[in-house]
Amino acid sequence: MLSSSFFSISLLGLLSVVSLEVTVTAADKINIVPGKAFDRFITIWLENQDYAKTLVDEAMVDMARQGIQLERYYAQTHPSQPNYIAAVGGDYFGLDHDERVRIPQNVSTVVDLFDTRGISWAGYFEDIPSPGYMGDASDGKTGNDGWDYVRKHNPFVSYDSINKNGSRLLNLLSLADFKRALEQRAVPQFVFISPNMMNDGHNTTLDHATNWSRELMKLILLPEAFDEPTLVMLTFDESEAYNEPNHIGTLLLGSAIPPKLKNTKDATFYTHYSILSTIEYNWDLPNLGRYDVGANIFRWVGEATGYDVAARLRDPTNADTVKNSFSYPGFLNQDESKWLPIPVPNLNLVGSSGKSVAEAVVKNWQSAVDKHTPYDGSGKVQDGEENLPVYKPPGGNREGA
Ligand SMILES: *[C@@H]1O[C@H](CO)[C@@H](O)[C@H](O)[C@H]1NC(C)=O
Ligand SMILES: *[C@@H]1O[C@H](CO)[C@@H](O)[C@H](O)[C@H]1NC(C)=O
Ligand SMILES: *[C@@H]1O[C@H](CO)[C@@H](O)[C@H](O)[C@H]1NC(C)=O
Ligand SMILES: *[C@@H]1O[C@H](CO)[C@@H](O)[C@H](O)[C@H]1NC(C)=O
């Protein structure tokens, strides 16, 4: 898609060196696969703030008027990196640190799900030195300092199923590329944005990060920014405090939200896995066979499309003990006594869309299909303390049951 639109742009450039101004809609630039409730999803990730503080932050309060404030959204663990990893792969594989990691090629991500229907996607990372950059951090040639872009806030690049594939790697771009795509009306259907270490609040303050976000929102939320219904999610990777549940502030904004839901609150239980389950439902995608299955989809999406929200959106059975502050054992845990192989996905699971596990996942894991697995589609939350994952023979689930 992109290459053909680049081609036509350069052709136009040859014909008219004076002006490239042509009226184009996104549909001319990128193929739009319609979703049930939205055609585009943009998520912006800020850093390390407690829910209570975001509630009284001026820019957050201001932005909340334009959308839905999620009152019970929990991050997966601490520190930052595992939360990002979880949001695109359906697990954080025991990760308990921010150092460079690699996740084996046989682990699929949301990208494999998008490929089943030709849904375009990109990650935009402020101050990344070049497309598909694999270093730990920027080196001073972009931004102001050596640590403006950091790999730990770019989940895609740590998955070998992405970093060993040139065309996928080339979807890991900079924020300047996002702004260019916005101007050219060629923003992909799934967008993951990490601001740099200043603008995401990591090295600055909540105020700074939310004010910066509000400025970016002014561009994204312009009525004329997109022709297609677009859902925008502003979230934090994790809370600041480790001694309480990992409760974070999250807003749903954008033209896809029904006007009557603007300036409302939603107290449904969510985690970062809700991003995956919502996307799978919206675009009728298969699932990853991991913790994506069983996570609540965003309530408004269900209500707008005839999903049985009363039966299917529920608290996890262990919601009262949610803490999500320390990582459970796993493949990426730095404590050797807590090392475990990558869990086998549960190939029996049916996801929010009613579809089974993606073929790419089945192909990679079929040989291990009988192994015990922690994934049961129940939506229960796991952590490294009270709620350790329980490995069992792979059972089925029936969504909605
Ligand atoms: C952000 O803080 C880290 C230390 O946590 C430091 O190494 C880095 O240089 C800082 N980055 C910027 C852009 O100030
Ligand atoms: C590389 O990525 C492209 C685009 O996602 C996909 O079509 C292709 O199958 C991938 N190749 C391999 C070997 O996984
Ligand atoms: C908010 O951000 C804008 C643009 O980034 C900046 O011009 C303005 O000074 C900021 N305001 C505050 C109160 O920080
Ligand atoms: C997945 O890849 C890992 C790392 O290469 C390997 O140890 C494991 O056996 C693979 N799993 C299967 C089912 O092939």
From TrEMBL:
The yes or no answer to whether the keyword Hydrolase is present is yes
Q: Give GO terms for biological process.
A: phospholipid catabolic process
Q: Which residues form a coiled coil?
A: none
Record's signal peptide? 1-27
Query: Its Gene Ontology molecular function terms?
Result: hydrolase activity, acting on ester bonds
Q: Which UniProt keywords apply?
A: Hydrolase, Signal
Pfam name, any one:
Phosphoesterase
Record's InterPro entries? Alkaline_phosphatase_core_sf, Phosphoesterase
- Annotated segments matching region Disordered: 372-401
**What's the name of the protein?**
Acid phosphatase
State the species of origin. Answer: Rhypophila decipiens
Traced from the root, the source organism's taxonomic lineage reads: Eukaryota, Fungi, Dikarya, Ascomycota, Pezizomycotina
